[in-house]
Amino acid sequence: MFHGKPVIGICNTWSELTPCNAHFRDLAEAVKRGVLEAGGFPVEFPVMSLGETLMKPTAMLFRNLASMDVEESIRANPIDGVILLCGCDKTTPALVMGAASVDLPTIVVSGGPMLTGKYRGRDIGTSDLWRFSEDARKGLMTEEELNLAEAGMCRSAGHCAVMGTASSMASMVESLGITLPGNAAIPAADSARKVLAQLSGRRIVELVREDVKLSDVLTRPAFENAIRVNAAIGGSTNFAIHLMAIAGRVEVELSLDDFDRFSRDIPLVANLQPSGQYFMEDLYYAGGLPAVMHAIESYLHTDTLTVNGKTVGDNISGCESLNPAVISSVSAPFNPVSGMVVLRGNLCENGAVLKPSAATPSLMQHTGKAVVFENIEEYRQRIDDPDLNVDASSVLVLKNVGPRGYPGMPEVGNMGIPKKLLDQGVTDMVRISDGRMSGTGFGTVVLHVSPEAAAGGNLALVESGDLIELDVAQRRLQLLVDDDELERRRQAFQPEPERFTRGYAKLYVEQVEQAHLGADFGFLKGSSGSEVSRDSH
Ligand code: FES
Fold first, then answer.
1. pTM for the whole thing?
2. Which has the closest alpha carbon to 481: 364, 367, 366?
3. Residue nearest to atom 1 of ligand 1 (CA)
4. Strand, coil or helix: what is 34?
5. Contact (CB, 8 A) for 424 and 487
6. For residue range 100-141, what is the model confidence (pLDDT) as tens digits?
């Protein structure tokens, strides 16, 4: 049956432990139909699935491991081209990173977002759950109401329905050109999702015959396009870490500063939660990502190749917004502020990021006294302590939640506001950490501080009561402590004891790079190609 035909691997992250990807067996069947129609031979294979909701200590710890599984599964088997079935947050970067290090013809098919959630007659999504859980802490909502809201949020198969990390990743792969047009926004429950999967199955067979490899599409201009699109949609801050890790695999030069540089002049065109009002389903009805890209066409490299064999310009031609309330224009944007700000200063010598569209404008220039939590356990113990020495002008600092420190860089950077301030009506504070924030999160939150505390960055030296200055316009994050005092503290600094003496966590802590480089393992950068010889690969 396979003789003389392109063999197409369907790399499947289906798992009952990853609810966002639980419909992927059906999706794989649609891909297979397309492969067979085009004269290829489909073979489905499983790889490690990374579910955001259940994995401990954080799914991010396993992104690099899953990428190794993907890379070696593709290379070790007789496969000519690959379809990557991705959904929940980390599954997309993990699969693209692994496939990029093999560099066969490759197309991504995302699982699609859930239908918009409903609770008591209103539209809700994951970002509302953050607000609801704060309401529950304040006693404004009962436990039962919170559970009902959570159940109403998950109405169908698919990943989170806001512009969180999963939707940002689905948009990233579409704007990079490694999906068919329209991939990002089609709801998982819409039959158009299966049509897209089937068409991708057909197209991958042609892509093998045309010998178009992943690296032919993943060029520097394609990465610049992805950064600009992520700004226009108000995408997740996690995007920076994952895009840099992917760039490292295809050896495209990309630095943290590129994210500021290429998003600085892009307005927020899409009005989507958590930066705006609407949901992925609304984005689909308004024209999807092609309409967003059409709106910012003048900022894009329109001559870049995509996997359907056409350029970005061809794909978005005529794709006007069908609903300006959801997809606005550059001349009348939903918000002139978008993108990702890259901060520098003695508190983040290799950089830190902040998402201005999710922050409070009045806090963008702020100096306040630090309230320091040495680790997540101390934070949980003290945050609601009525005696915590904190007021609305304080700056919350959380250490040891970076790639090495936690390990795995969990999404705790948008730490909750102290209960006694919540009771006073405080809704936002400046918060700083070496961790990440959920793409569904919001607030004036400085993330990805590099070097992290566990790597001996100055973040490790901050003490409660120190003044910290945040100046977003100047891209500055400064610990207002003089150098002599910092040096004295550095000499006295004792890192947290190493907790992992074996297994993958030990390998991770030893090998993971800092956030400003994408938190990949240094030894995984680049590609080993698809050829396997007896001696090496
Ligand atoms: Fe999977 Fe949000 S939990 S995408």
1. 0.96
2. 367
3. 88
4. helix
5. no
6. 999 999 999 999 999 999 999 999 988 788 788 888 888 899
